[in-house]
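Dear support,

I submitted the protein below through the web form. The confirmation email said the job was done, but the results page showed an empty box. After a refresh the structure appeared. I'm attaching both so you can tell me whether what I see now is the final result or a partial one.
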Amino acid sequence: MNLYKLVNQDEYDVDSVASAYICAMETLLDVLNEDHNALKQALSKIDKRLSTTYHEIEKSNFNGVQGYYFAKEIKEILQKRRVIKGEKAKLKSIIKSLSSGVKNANATHNKVFKKDQELRGSLNTLIGFSDVVEDIWK
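What the results page shows now:
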């Protein structure tokens, strides 16, 4: 299976292999952003849980055993928070790099596409990529 066949479906509008790759990168970027937003929401929930635990500690009189359980709960919350923050940071770095790459790829693709269209027009080439796909990938 090649990428062109994979993304050359009704929901995508591609006119070349390069367009298919750019479309796939944009789709991946959308998925990464969705996952990043899910991690932001998870971080918000864990911060609220931590705040709630701090308030419970603040308003209660507790003995050593209860203090141990409070400390254990805070440790668990903080460890989960650290993992979420780490994953969020990793995704953010990928998103930043991919966003830049997609922007550059789109700009370059548009320049090359325009030149290709001009050349095809000057040579009176009336067929498009979809007319030769089957000759490339059978």
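Response: this is the final, complete result; the empty box was a page-load delay. Helices lie at 3-7, 17-59, 64-122, 133-136.
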